[in-house]
């Protein structure tokens, strides 16, 4: 019988054929020639580097289908997956086992700038490494880690996007597991009401006759301090430093997220934010990184319309506990390609059961930007409803005025007729 993981791989293969793309699949074996590590994944890179003429260039490429696994290792407590490609490029993931789970401790992407196939006109010929800590944690032993949603890893000049991933480290007895541990972004989305923090107090009930004294607990809500309206940031993505913008976004952002039983909110501060991203004919990305929050917004266009289809948020709050969550199946901020989407009213979106996004004075245009300026805006329903109120109010006022005039006319006419009968 085909295992669940194998069925998943077949599903990925079919999806790859439809999308005219491909996955990279590798199997690592131990000294006994038994399977000890398996991976089937899709991975995109976006690298900004210095080119001739003191300019910066950005290249986008996929992890090739044909890679080697030289340097991969399997151990009882730690394992390493190393994928080598091109001339001196590699992508390495280090796994460790902890009791009944395992996790990925680091991802190291090494790229050789002297390889003109990937990095044309590079000023340097050195090999650069970018190290990130992925959010692949608490994977049950003897299960495959599965994540169809896009996971973004960003550091300095490198963006890595991983999706359609199926990975198993520490394969037991050389047999790939039938069980799956899914990433948070793939879990079903449910609406979660904000947590209300309460403080318990005790009130004593006076004793009467033989009735013993009892205590009745009461609860007094402790309101969460309200945050100020977030500052509106203006963000632009350019294909090259000296080119006009190909993606525009203005908005104020706030995120609400739940860790355990604690719900909290944070404003995104545009000051000091690093802006990166990419523009394509059918997909565009905007990546915003501040000291406390990293947000990746992915847009897609189809049938001459665009919308926000994926959102990835990673926080580094003052508590030091990192929160990350994503949703790769959104249909938000839809408008015609060649126009912009605008929503001035405060809006909130339940991205997942743990993550809520709040927007203020929103305007975005990820496709068809002309001369670096926003095109005509399509208003959101909230603004459209508000815009209808003015003409409706004017119409009602005019109707009331007409009724008053008609009523005054008939009253006056009746009085004149009554006065004429009396004079006769």
Polypeptide structure, described:
The chain has 424 residues and is mainly β. Helices cover 14% and strands 48% of the residues. The protein is built from two helices and 28 strands. It has helices spanning 4-19, 381-423, and strands at residues 24-29, 35-51, 55-62, 73-74, 78-85, 89-98, 101-112, 127-132, 139-140, 144-147, 151-155, 158-169, 180-182, 198-205, 214-221, 233-238, 245-259, 262-267, 274-279, 283-289, 293-302, 305-315, 323-327, 332-336, 340-343, 347-350, 355-365, 377-379. Strands 1, 2, 3, 10, 11, 12 and 13 form a seven-stranded mixed sheet that branches. Strands 16, 17, 18, 25, 26, 27 and 28 form a seven-stranded mixed sheet that branches. Strands 4, 5, 6, 7, 8 and 9 form a six-stranded antiparallel sheet that branches. The chain is elongated, with a radius of gyration of 30 Å. The model is unreliable at 1-20, 190-223 and 382-389 (pLDDT under 50).
TL;DR?
This protein has helices at residues 4-19, 381-423; strands spanning 24-29, 35-51, 55-62, 73-74, 78-85, 89-98, 101-112, 127-132, 139-140, 144-147, 151-155, 158-169, 180-182, 198-205, 214-221, 233-238, 245-259, 262-267, 274-279, 283-289, 293-302, 305-315, 323-327, 332-336, 340-343, 347-350, 355-365, 377-379. It has 424 residues and is mainly beta.
